[in-house]
Amino acid sequence: MYENLLSPNEFANISGISRQTLIFYERKNVFKPILKNEKGFRFYSLEQLDVIVTIQGLQTIGLSLREIQDYIENRNAELIYELYSSKLIPLKQTVQKYNRMIEMMNVKLELIKKAKSVLLDTIYLEYRPAIQIIKSKEIPLDASDTIQYKILGEHMEYRKVKDYSLGHAVAGIVDWKRAIESMTDKTQYRYYYTILPSSHEETDYSVIESGTYIVIYHKGPYNQTYEIYPKIIEYVKENHFEIESMLYEESLIDETTESDPNNYITQISVRIKEIF
User: Fold this and answer.
1) Which of 35, 130, 140, 270 is the most buried (most CB within 10 A)?
2) pTM for this one?
């Protein structure tokens, strides 16, 4: 009578489902043995492997046992097509979210690695490809600390909403001429900005143009980067360069990496104008 049937252990070995899981499914009325004799022994058939495969597939896409029970009893091609279609969009969104997180974490690792390899207070000439960015509101020349922090806070909130916080830190754009003329005792930013990840969906963004840049790396708090500007001025004069009006400052080592602002490392770059 039981020649073509399998014991729970045999069925478990073939299906890859533990015996305890089979018992759990039975208690939840999701999957039952094909036969249970007068002594309470359970038996399964090979044909039931298809049902187990179906249950595992439905669990993988996030269905509850109650939902699985309904699908097992009423499943057909149209129903499963609708189910998979409805689950596909949020699943793709989840994959995109985690891919973005991985990308931004890799960015942070690369920034730290770069910070360890560069020479501080040393001028480099580097070609840079174009970079897409999102800028904050413009910071007025005579802005108080309160206004500056308000604009910074708004930009940081935008980063948080868009999940941009794991990669590049908040960066700053300095109006070079304004900075030289004012000669204050702290760095004055005209905008804050964020470098966008490659997978972004922004439509209203700005671009840092490609080209050759003077680059120097400064160690210390953000508001003291101005101290290295004279070195850039000297280099420009010695080499008879013309430079663009905007200077870009990006943190390699920032507050998420170091507790002491004196250990922050900022990359400062300004584009050389082409001379014909």
Assistant:
1) 270
2) 0.70
